[in-house]
Write a structure and sequence with these properties.
It is a single chain. The protein has ten helices and ten strands. With 243 residues, the chain is an alpha/beta fold. The protein folds into two domains: 160 residues, 3-Layer(aba) Sandwich (Rossmann fold); 68 residues, no CATH class. α3 crosses α4, α4 runs antiparallel to α5 and α8 crosses α9. The longest helix has 16 residues. It is globular and about 50 Å long. The termini are far apart. The structure holds adenosine-5'-diphosphate. The site of adenosine-5'-diphosphate has 11 residues, from β2 and α1. Adenosine-5'-diphosphate binds next to β2 and α1.
């Protein structure tokens, strides 16, 4: 689903991502980790088609983001860490607006709206203005909107921050279910225990370079540690402190 080949992104002289190679197959739940400033947001923006690589190629579902951006973007949904909603719309109006943006046929849009309202238990508040929503209600509405057009790739940036334990549990179940249904989930997070629990594979980016990628077992081998993902992450990203 994701093919990143030899991707470098520079902002002026600053290299944010360097010679990144990464392939994520259909239905994989992939966790993308890295310290602040490592290049995660830059990579995500390139996956969404919001930024283009300085060199190299990004393909989504076989479509090159630089030459077939519309086809590639149609497969992707992105949930940012700050759930954005139009405050003067109700949740239902926001979902309708999203369906219209994606050009969904009316009947399909309507049935998908009913489905996501049910999936995320929005019925109690979906007809209230979103300015009155709590963080958890916002997050559920944003996820509902993101899944409305049945994307093949869901990119979620720190989706569990600010959620209560019950919502975190529901989100974890949702992400695993999506992957089981064949949706590729690309999760960027600092919450290493969630990454360890959920991810099929983990990629660690540091100073713009992918310095580790694989299952927890692969990364443990690389780090020479049989600890948790947190131990492995710290060992790989801060080698001088752990030796
Ligand atoms: P992360 O999401 O892992 O914190 P980013 O992708 O935001 O990392 O940033 C990677 C590097 O690129 C950082 O050194 C950051 O300062 C730099 N950077 C990000 N955006 C810009 C920009 N618009 N202009 C210049 N440098 C940037």
């Amino acid at each position: 689903m994701i093919e990143i080949v030899e991707v470098t992104k520079r902002y002026g002289n600053k290299v944010a991502v360097e010679k990144l190679n990464l392939a994520v197959p259909n239905g994989e739940l992939f966790a993308f980790l890295g310290p602040n400033g490592a290049g995660k947001t830059t990579t995500i923006k390139m996956l969404c088609g919001l930024l283009f690589p300085t060199s190299g190629t990004v393909k989504i579902g076989g479509y090159n983001m630089s030459t077939h951006g519309d086809e590639a973007r149609a497969l992707v949904s992105y949930v940012p860490d700050q759930p954005f909603l139009y405050e003067k719309l109700t949740g239902r109006e926001f979902l309708q607006f999203t369906a219209d943006l994606y050009g969904m046929p009316i009947a399909y849009g309507k049935s998908r709206m009913e489905r996501v309202i049910e999936m995320f238990h929005l019925d109690e508040f979906v007809d209230t203005l979103t300015e009155r929503y709590s963080h958890g209600m916002r997050q559920r509405t944003v996820f509902a909107a993101a899944l409305l057009h049945e994307p093949k790739l869901l990119i979620a940036d720190e989706p569990t921050v600010g959620l209560d334990p019950k919502s975190i549990r529901e989100l974890k179940v949702l992400l695993r279910d999506l992957a089981k249904q064949g949706v590729t989930v690309f999760l960027s997070t600092h919450t290493l225990d969630i990454a360890q629990e959920l991810a099929d594979r983990v990629g660690i980016i540091h100073n713009g370079t992918l310095i580790g990628c694989g299952t927890l077992a692969d990364l443990r081998k690389k780090a020479g540690s049989d600890g948790t993902l947190e131990d492995v992450f710290l060992k790989i990203t801060e080698p001088s402190e752990s030796t």
